[in-house]
Amino acid sequence: VTLDQVSKVYERGGDHICGLDQVSLDITTGTFCAFVGPSGCGKSTLLNLIAGLDVPTSGEIWIEGQSTARFTANDWTRARRQSIGIVFQAFHLVPGLTVEENVAFPLLLRGEQGSTVRHRVVEVLALVGLLHRSRHRPSELSGGEQQRAAIARAIVHRPKIILADEPTGNLDSHHGTEIIALLRLLVQQFKPTVLLVTHSVAAAEAADYIWTMKDGRLVSRTVNQTALAGA
User: Fold this and answer.
1) How far apart are the first and last CA of the chain?
2) Are strands 2-12 and 58-63 parallel, antiparallel or unpaired?
3) Beta bridge pairs of residue 17
4) Which end of the chain is less packed: N or C, by CB atoms within 10 Å?
5) DSSP 3-state helix, strand, coil percentages of the chain (rounded to 5)?
6) What is the C-alpha separation between 100 and 192, in angstroms, rounded?
7) Is 24 in a helix, a strand, or coil?
8) What is the tens place of the pLDDT at every residue in 158-215?
9) How far apart are CA 208 and CA 32, in angstroms?
10) DSSP assignments along 146-177, one per residue
């Protein structure tokens, strides 16, 4: 993931609000990066731009070496189905579907079916420790279980980039620790690039690099030697 002088300016009631201010960033494959800072500093804006959920006002973003400057909505949809997995603070599970049906959904959208889908769903549910809950609906799960189901759905198509926006924000400290440990495990086993936005210092400390943001800018980077050594 590469950003070159990326800015995002919002217009609200005649005012111009800078969400991101000339951010340049180069993140190599298989790196776990955390972005921390006060509310409104631009963390979620950064992730939304990388995910194609918002469009930069200026600057350029590259995903897997490909510029997104001319991406259409269909191009972004294809990128999210093939290369990007997104985990939100709100779990966004479909209430009427079982866990396994929620997890299978990204594969069905890509036109996959049959034993391939079943095998992949079982694989990721086992990885996140939810195989025994596969036939349950979201309302029958705890908050931690719902977030693990959301992570399973985000990784079932084997994305090369995982974007996690406050994934522990709705969880207690115990379940939050489990979720961050799961993200760390994914990096170690499958080497995706993980970008984590968080208010939690403990969560950020699981990352290889910790970027601090303020007023839409990246102001510092901390290298986590312990996490890198563990990887």
Assistant:
1) 19
2) antiparallel
3) 10
4) C
5) 40, 25, 35
6) 23
7) strand
8) 999 999 999 998 888 899 999 999 999 999 999 999 999 999 888 999 999 999 999 9
9) 5
10) HHHHHHHHHHTT--SEEEEESTTTTS-HHHHH
Give the type of residue at 139.
Answer: S
Interatomic CA distance for residues 149 and 134, integer angstroms: 9
Residue 73, token pair as written in the block: 């909505």
Query: Which sign, positive or negative, has the C-alpha torsion 227, 204, 22, 49?
Result: positive
> What residue type is 165 in one-letter code?
D
Q: Which two tokens stand for residue 8?
A: 């995002």
Q: Are 71 and 79 in contact (CB under 8 A)?
A: yes
> Tell me, what amino acid is at 227?
A
Two structure tokens written together for 230: 């563990």
Alpha-helix residue ranges (DSSP H) falling in the chain: 43-51, 73-82, 99-109, 115-127, 143-155, 173-190, 201-204, 225-230
Put simply, whether the predicted model's pTM sits higher than 0.90 gets the answer yes
154 token code pair:
């985000």
Tokens 């469009």 -> residue: 55
